[in-house]
Amino acid sequence: MESDIQIAQKAKMKPIGEIAASLGIPDEALEPFGRSKAKISLEYIDSLKSRPDGKLILVTAISPTPAGEGKTTTTVGLGDALNYIGKKAVVCLREPSLGPVFGMKGGAAGGGFAQVVPMEDINLHFTGDFNAIALANNLLAAMIDNHIHHGNELGFDVRRIAWKRVMDMNDRALRDITVSLGGPANGFPRQDGFDIVVASEVMAIFCLATSVKDLKTRLGNIVCGYTAAQKPILARDLKTHGAMAALLKGALAPNLVQTLEHTPAFIHGGPFANIAHGCNSVLATQTALKLADYVVTEAGFGADLGAEKFVDIKCRKAGLKPSAVVLVATIRALKYHGGVEVKELGTPNLIALEKGIANIERHVNNIRNHYGLACVVAINHRTEDSEAEVKLLMDKLAHHGAKVVLARHWAEGGRGAADLAREVVAMCEQPTDFKFVYEEDASLWDKMKAIAVKIYGASDIAADSKVRARIKNLQESGYGHYPICVAKTQYSFSTDPKLRGAPSDHIVTIREVRLAAGAEFVVMICGDIMTMPGLPKVPSACSIDIADDGKIVGLF
User: Does the predicted model carry a pTM greater than 0.85?
Assistant: First the structure.
């Protein structure tokens, strides 16, 4: 079987103008990046506001495993399948971060015959959006230290700087550093650190902003530090938000590409789901809804992290209402949740599968009962899946009212997911009882507890006195109406990545709290999750190369 990149490199892409024309987008609304990529002008997007919206379909997944689930692949495959059965569909995805691409993933543009292309461009530099976000973030960081160096008129307490530098690469050596060494000319030494770009509040703001004006306002609201009296200092106090917005103006326009089957795809923004809110930009989603009858989007990682934030942050803030949810799983991954190690997953094992099904059952329950949405389970089919295993899964989920559909898009493209597309179309015609996990007027503590108890199956949440005091201070300072963005491991419902399946009655301990006043949410960091990941022992970067003929290899 050919690798993903070999399949992508053989693709016969249409000129991006043809893809745009299929959606009714005129040439003058395009800013082309070569023949295969383009940005859609903000002026044109603004002209679409009076049009009705299409149906929004969320693709999410079970708790991730080393066996893989194929959520992005399924998102692409479903978009192709909807067009295959005669519907007008668009795909909305996040942009890949170079950290995971060179770390563990090696690529994040789908797989097999369900990919977005040009695959190499999308996985590597694309249209420069992440670079613009890093520059805007680091401009604010530089302005903070420069302000302190030149007299500190605003009264920054150097022990309470709340803004880190970022880079789009996993580098554990930069988590905690000391800056401004070398004498008076270099500023005042202080402890600092780096986050990865996709954890930056600028990324979150970028993905939630609905216009240049909204972007600039949100950037100005960033709390970047505090005085000794703990008075917040905002980016607008430094007069930095205008320049930050100027750096981001071009990037704010959504990117248009295509799938292998020429389905239009918006790929824009990319906050991590385990440390940020895990959704593509609101602008891209809203634009797609004005241009297509069906929009297929994904939320990062499992339905406990990505889908919850999609519902409680993105949908709440942007007024979006999904019509259906596709929950992706593989038989392999469910056996892993049942205790089987990776090297044994190819062997049929009904006992382990039955045990691992507890993971998908909780996700189905959350989607149906806590998000109030109709749900279909898509089994990303593999040739090793036995009929007995598939039947067991279907039988187990039957009493949950969730249909199970085998999808073969990885091997067959859109036609391999036609049954899934038909089921989704039928679900979209049914009424929903869409709801949030918590009410906006609940306290920050109660919001976090609602997520932990309802979605994670925890018995309670906990925090030390310092963290509790921070939460209380934010509540009393007028931020209590903000939604919660949980940063925790994606591998388990708990904060322990080794607890597979569906652990219950555990305690979710809040280790740190961060205010994202521009993005308008409060980040609760739980467990040992890092906002600057490290590379694995054998990074994917070791396999990525460029051949003498200029072709990139190793992006799987």
Answer: yes
